[in-house]
Amino acid sequence: MEHFSIRPFKHEDIDFAHKLDTTEQWNHTRNDIERMFSFEPNGCFIADINSKPVGHVFSISYGRLGWIGLLIVKAKYRRRGIGTLLTKTAMNYLLSRKVKTTKLEAVPKVANLYRKLGFVDEFDSLRLIRTGGKIITMSSHCVKPLKSREITQLAEFDAEYFGANRIRVLSELSR
């Protein structure tokens, strides 16, 4: 039986994470993953089997609210408890940051993994895809680039709906 272990995610793991993300057709770019890692490097973890990465999870704290994402385990290593241990590691990390509530988004295929760990359904989400064809645009005087001085106002608006202030993430995304 192969032994697996969980370790901190390192910058050198970004290519592995991008390849796994691409395999799952999640469509994050390498830069997206690098940026997500930069938000809270200590909240990101890798599962290794025989010193080779087989899965990862990212987490981030926003004060009393935490978020878990990018949980992926290579298909041939699933159903061995690796995803559960990665999630528990992220949950424990968030608890160490004084997070009171942890949220995540799950596809129906893996939702039961999270339910077994005490997560409850908050609402349904719908994932859509569009391929090919011309995109028709209309000019609009209402859409304008976000100015850096507007980030605080945007973060306050976002916090009303998200439940926590994400100013550091929104600031980085606007750059």
CATH topology group of the largest domain:
Aminopeptidase
Total helices: the number is 6
Instruction: Summarize the helix and strand pattern as letters.
Output: EHHEEEHEHHH
Distance between the termini: 47 Å
- The secondary-structure class comes to alpha+beta
Query: What's the Cα radius of gyration?
Result: 18 Å
Q: What is the beta-strand fraction?
A: 15-25%
Give the SSE layout.
Elements (H helix, E strand, L loop, with lengths): L3 E5 L5 H10 L6 H10 L4 E6 L2 E11 L2 E9 L8 H15 L4 E4 L6 H6 L34 H12 L4 H8 L1
Parallel strand pairs: 4-5
Antiparallel strand pairs: 1-2, 2-3, 3-4
Helix pairs in contact: 1-2, 5-6
Task: Describe the structure concisely.
The chain has helices spanning about 15-25, 30-40, 80-95, 110-115, 150-160, 165-175; strands at about 5-10, 45-50, 50-60, 65-75, 100-105. With about 180 residues, the chain is an alpha+beta fold. It folds into two domains: about 5-130, Gcn5-related N-acetyltransferase (GNAT) (Aminopeptidase, 3-Layer(aba) Sandwich); about 130-175, no CATH class.
Q: Would you mind describing this structure in some detail?
A:
With 175 residues, the chain is of the alpha+beta class. It folds into 2 domains: 4-129, Gcn5-related N-acetyltransferase (GNAT) (Aminopeptidase); 132-175, no CATH class. The protein contains 6 helices and 5 strands; from the N terminus they run E-H-H-E-E-E-H-E-H-H-H. Strands 1-2-3-4-5 form a 5-stranded mixed beta sheet, sandwiched between helices. Helix 1 packs across helix 2 (30-39) and helix 5 (151-162) packs across helix 6 (167-174). The longest helix is centred in the middle third of the chain and has 15 residues, at 82-96. The radius of gyration is 18 Å and the shape is globular.
